[in-house]
Write a structure and sequence with these properties.
With about 525 residues, this protein is mostly beta strands. Among the domains are: about 140 residues, no CATH class; about 70 residues, Immunoglobulins (Immunoglobulin-like, Sandwich). Helices cover about 0% and strands about 45% of the residues. The strands form 9 sheets. A 4-stranded antiparallel β-sheet has the order 1-28-27-26, with no helix packed on it. A hairpin with a 5-residue loop joins strand 24 and strand 25. The longest helix has 7 residues.
Length: about 525
């Protein structure tokens, strides 16, 4: 199974502004939103490049990791297939160095942390047994790479068994070693004690990467750990999802639940909680908070059990627990379409910043751009939304990692397929997308002047479409672009309603945009 963060669905690309096809370029709404962005960088080559994690470094710059299929652009040294890609940026997002790590097969980095010696520890999943990777056990293994401050490989280890391991998170521990977590379905090699189809797998390493202990946690069904953190008492806190209700798991609500687990320093189970409702509930990120409790974020399709305020389809779901795992508060964020909270981090004011993915246009989401956006949400200490913004272009963006920065702002990592809106200089296909935000990103409301609003119906359509607009603004002009971003129709709007015949156009997805002196408004249209 491929990690969803590394293998997004293939959305049809729609560009609101396609210079290559001769479409006029400036969108006042996008320009207004750019004032919230301190800087942004698209990093990669002409193939697919997906970011998985980011951290600010001690010099004020940033380290980010993910995967690359590229052999050009910003990428140098790819070993073949998909490589782990490690990128070091300076304080303003300029590329300092990059390393492609892996072998000839599929290698994906998902987690990075700066170490006490100013180097870096990188965790990923590897299918290779050549190049930088040695001693693969078969199929996918956890792969750990220790780098020096310049990104040179100091040592590497592959961990697993003859089955499948998928890595998700690593952290340096107080003793100079490392703790990492993910999932396994092996019961040989480095793995022992598996309960069922797949288990949480937590592995403690010494400073040189040798195994000190390992634990399999779960029940007879499917259990996947997404995050691990050392706690103040020297133990460990894990979060993820479970489909089990036996073995180590009790209190399941049905289908997948958030599953949070507290271990002592030796890896023995102290307590566990299943959180959720009768739908699918999956935790992607967690953090030990300054009050001794925990914050956990993911997504839900439930509207019962522990969940209230559900909007429909997938909601982002954020849960605050005390130190014993008791539920203090919970928040479902979003409304009518699919959204999910991919990363949560506590901020200096004891609130929380969330990196998420959204395809919603309403509910808690504002300023949605296209097929999917990076969505950044700021919560106060009680889980109330203080501010939020969606960032992106007309294609799909996905936010996977966020962190507060030393200047009081925020940095967000994800990936983008756009080359318009907030996204500048995409290298081709999907790029790493790194966005630096000021601490006032959440304070900017929509402009007092609004672009002309319109509706297109029926939608989907067989080609005959009726356009009705509100007549606001001035110099209204309508443009329709196809899935390649090329203009197929343009018209100055002299009347508030008119019929449009697109029956000569191929079936598929189109974008209708109305430009005015106040801005632009867009609607997707399906021809069938």
């Amino acid at each position: 199974m491929v990690d969803q963060r590394m293998s997004p669905p293939m959305y049809i690309r729609l560009q609101r502004v396609a210079f290559v096809c001769g479409i006029l370029g400036s969108n006042p709404l996008a320009q207004a939103q750019l004032t919230q962005i301190q800087w942004q960088r698209s990093l990669g080559g002409t193939a697919n490049d997906f970011a998985g994690s980011i951290q600010q470094t001690s010099d004020g710059g940033f380290i980010t990791v993910g995967s690359t299929n590229s052999l050009d652009g910003d990428v140098f040294g790819n070993h073949g297939g998909t490589d782990c890609w490690v990128v070091k940026l300076d304080t303003t997002g300029n590329l300092e160095w990059q390393k492609a790590l892996g072998g000839s097969q599929w290698d994906v980095a998902v987690s990075v942390e700066q170490t006490a010696d100013s180097g870096f520890i990188v965790l990923g999943t590897s299918y290779s047994n050549d190049g930088d990777v040695s001693a693969n056990h078969g199929f996918g293994d956890f792969w750990v790479a220790k780098l020096n401050p310049s990104g040179d490989l100091q040592w590497q280890r592959a961990f697993g068994g003859s089955g499948y391991e998928e890595a998700h998170c690593i952290q340096q521990t107080d003793d100079g070693g490392y703790v990492m977590a993910g999932t396994t379905d092996s019961n040989d090699g480095d793995v022992s004690g598996v309960h069922g189809s797949s288990d949480y797998w937590i592995v403690k390493l010494d400073p040189l990467g040798d195994v000190q202990w390992q634990k399999c946690l779960g029940g007879s069904s499917h259990d996947v750990a997404s995050s691990v953190q050392q706690t103040g008492d020297g133990g460990y806190f894990l979060s993820g999802r479970t489909f089990s209700n036996d073995g180590d798991v009790s209190g399941s609500h049905g289908s997948f639940d958030f599953w949070v687990v507290k271990l002592d320093g030796a890896g023995d189970l102290q307590w566990q909680r299943a959180l959720g409702g009768s739908g699918d509930d999956e935790a992607f990120s967690a953090e030990h908070t300054s009050d001794g409790g925990y914050i956990v974020a993911g997504r839900t399709t439930s509207n019962n059990g522990d969940i209230t305020g559900y909007h429909g389809n997938y909601d982002g779901w954020v849960v605050k627990l005390d130190g014993a795992g008791n539920l203090l508060w919970q928040r479902a964020i979003r409304r009518s379409d699919s959204d999910e909270a991919r990363c949560v981090r506590q901020t200096t004011d004891d609130g929380y910043v969330i990196a998420a993915h959204t395809i919603s246009y309403d509910g808690d989401v504002s300023w949605q751009h296209g097929a999917g956006d990076v969505w950044v949400v700021k919560l106060d200490t009680d889980g109330n939304i203080e501010g939020q913004r969606a960032f992106g272009g007309s294609n799909v963006e996905f936010g996977v990692s966020a962190q507060g920065t030393v200047d009081g702002g925020y940095v967000v990592a994800g990936y983008t397929g756009s080359n318009d809106g907030d996204v500048i200089l995409n290298n081709g296909a999907q790029d790493f997308w790194i966005v630096s935000l000021g601490n006032d990103f959440m304070g900017l409301d929509e402009p007092a002047t609004h672009p002309a609003m319109f509706e297109a119906f029926p939608n989907p359509s067989d080609g005959m479409v009726r356009i009705v607009h509100d007549g606001s603004g001035s110099s209204l002009h309508l443009i329709i672009t196809n899935a390649s971003g090329c203009r197929v129709f343009g018209k100055t709007l002299d009347e508030e309603a008119f019929a449009l015949d697109l029956s000569d156009q191929p079936q598929g997805l189109y974008l209708i945009t109305v430009f005015s002196s106040d801005g632009a408004s867009s609607r997707r249209l399906v021809l069938e």
